[in-house]
Amino acid sequence: xxxxxxxxxxxxxxxxxxxxxxxxxxxxxxxxxxxxxxxxxxxxxxxxxxxxxxxxxxxxxxxxxxxxxxxxxxxxxxxxxxxxxxxxxxxxxxxxxxxxxxxxxxxxxxxxxxxxxxxxxxxxxxxxxxxxxxxxxxxxxxxxxxxxxxxxxxxxxxxxxxxxxxxxxxxxxxxxxxxxxxxxxxxxxxxxxxxxxxxxxxxxxxxxxxxxxxxxxxxxxxxxxxxxxxxxxxxxxxxxxxxxxxxxxxxxxxxxxxxxxxxxxxxxxxxxxxxxxxxxxxxxxxxxxxxxxxxxxxxxxxxxxxxxxxxxxxxxxxxxxxxxxxxxxxxxxxxxxxxxxxxxxxxxxxxxxxxxxxxxxxxxxx
Length: 366
Ligand SMILES: NC(=O)c1ccc[n+]([C@@H]2O[C@H](COP(=O)([O-])OP(=O)(O)OC[C@H]3O[C@@H](n4cnc5c(N)ncnc54)[C@H](O)[C@@H]3O)[C@@H](O)[C@H]2O)c1
Ligand SMILES: [Zn+2]
Hints:
Layout: E1 10-14, H1 21-25, E2 31-36, H2 38-54, E3 58-63, H3 70-83, E4 87-92, H4 94-107, E5 110-115, E6 127-131, E7 137-142, E8 149-153, H5 154-159, H6 162-184, H7 197-222, H8 228-248, H9 252-260, H10 271-285, H11 290-303, H12 319-329, H13 345-364
Parallel strand pairs: 1-8, 2-3, 2-4, 4-5, 5-8
Antiparallel strand pairs: 6-7
Protein name: Glycerol dehydrogenase
Cofactor: Zn(2+)
Keywords: Metal-binding, NAD, Oxidoreductase, Zinc
């Protein structure tokens, strides 16, 4: 299998860049459509439309209904066709961006991805996670094309609730362990090849950046402040984690996340929060030494991330519930099979139980 690395064409990050979008998107088309929910439109609609118009583009907005569902994709596609849009700008969290990517695929036009929270590594990827209108995970849709431009305004990211920023850090921390497992097993990455050195090293840089800057960056975002650490972590959560997971590969942590979504009780936990339980469980599965896992749990607690099952809504889960998670995590098409050893549902269930007990002990000993 060939080594493959893919990425968006350009990435722009900094304070106030939302209001400079016209400069960066000018060459992409003439008729821009901004897709965002009511909260996000309230934050940036005026500035973004004014900047696009100042750059000579026609620009309008449409309100996103909040779910990345097929019905919502069809509704926006129809509307975008009526308006003759040739640049689709998705702004918001992972769901708004995933919807914009799907609409763009139907239209075959240019796309700008504008995350307004550093909550996931969705902004740079060429895939959407599609849900039912009721919010249940349905499937992944993969595309040939990445966003043409990813634009992140760090003022906006720092103003958003800190929980999003913490969650993105968890999504980013997982990236290295999963990319490394994929490399060790000579497994397949998310763009249909084996990992390049670039994909692997970007995942590693993501981890190092989050370990070096994560705690002070969260401190800053608690006060809505933008510091160099906030810039570093925003880039890690968004660009490094995005390129690292797609071109480096996913493994157990995200499969365990997908398994956890099977249980209704976890639905209030964010993507990144569930991923963190997946990461600790992956470390247990891999048989990492005690000090290593304890250090990871300790760092998670410093950032303010969940480490136990009850932290993500699973108080004393029944054995059958953990079996459901473990079975789903080990489905044939899951990335858990990128681990460099065969993984079975009983192994995942026992690792989940152990990770929970270990994390409780670390928390109590602090
Ligand atoms: N496609 C991919 O590669 C990929 C990767 C990771 C996660 N995902 C998907 O991303 C989704 C999760 O994304 P999420 O955690 O960002 O949540 P989300 O998209 O479900 O919600 C984000 C929320 O934040 C609000 N918001 C956005 N910007 C804000 C701001 N500046 N201030 C205040 N509120 C703001 C929005 O109104 C919305 O309610 C899941 O569907 C997951 O499957 C996709
Ligand atoms: Zn993720």
